[in-house]
Amino acid sequence: MAREGFLQAPNVHPFTTLWYSRADRHISDYSLDDQEYVDHAMIEWQGSEREFTRTLGLLKAIDLSSNNLTGHIPHQLTDLHELVALNLSNNALLGEIPQQVGEMKNLVALDLSKNNLSGAIPSSMSQMNFLGYLDVSCNNLSGRIPSSTELQSFESSRYNGNTGLCGPPLTTKCPGDEDPKVSPPVGESDLDEDWGWFCIGGGTGF
After folding, report:
1. Which run of H or of E encompasses 199?
2. Is position 67 within any domain?
3. Which of 31, 40, 162, 199 pairs with 5 at a CA distance of 20 to 30 A?
4. What DSSP character marks residue 11?
5. How confident is the prediction for the chain on average, in pLDDT?
């Protein structure tokens, strides 16, 4: 997963079964039957559990979700440049998301939800052009969500549970994003004041 290379063949493995047709099992009664079996695995992929069979050998994924993992996410994990899917959700991981996570440019699915991660979402994630699934909900992340075509295209629920996060696609605005108060055009305030005195004077005269 760290070095680019040829994809492995599909996980189809041939094997030969020895059959016999008579109860006395004479050697002449044995026959060979060539068969095959397929490795399979149930993997959380882009938000739903799927079974991978013949394509399992082509999938470069790490799924360590729903364990009791603690501590920080090792920064060496970002050296796996050929990794396609990473699921570390539903653990007790803490600390920040590694700043070099954006170097995992082949990553299609990333799930870090339901941990105790803190800090900002690394700006390098805006370079992850193949990212089709992201979930960082239910952490302690804060700051502005980096701007990119991918990160703003995900549903806001993928960021929920991080009270310090702000910016699109969330409706929470970041400091400095508030609409500035519109000042009246130059001279307009003076005109309004003159018009007010005119109305007062007119009323008094009447």
Report:
1. helix 188-205
2. yes
3. 40
4. S
5. 80
**What CATH number did the domain enclosing 138 receive?**
3.80.10.10
Q: Residue holding tokens 């082949």?
A: 106
Instruction: Report the 10 Å Cβ neighbour count for 77.
Output: 16
With respect to residue 65, please indicate whether it lies within any of the assigned structural domains: yes
Residue 134 makes CB contacts below 8 A (sequence gap 6+) with 109, 110, 111, 150, 151, 154, 158
Contacts of 205 (CB under 8 A, 6+ apart): none
Predicted confidence (pLDDT) at residue 30 exceeds the cutoff of 90: no
Q: How confident is the model at residue 50 (pLDDT cuts 50, 70, 90)?
A: confident
Mean pLDDT in residue range 1-25: 65
Domain range for 133 is: 40-173
DSSP 91: S
Report yes or no on 18 lying in a domain. Answer: no
C-alpha to C-alpha distance for 41 and 73, rounded to whole angstroms: 24
* Total domains, the chain: 1
pLDDT level of residue 22 (50, 70, 90 thresholds) = low
Q: Determine, yes or no, domain membership for 124.
A: yes
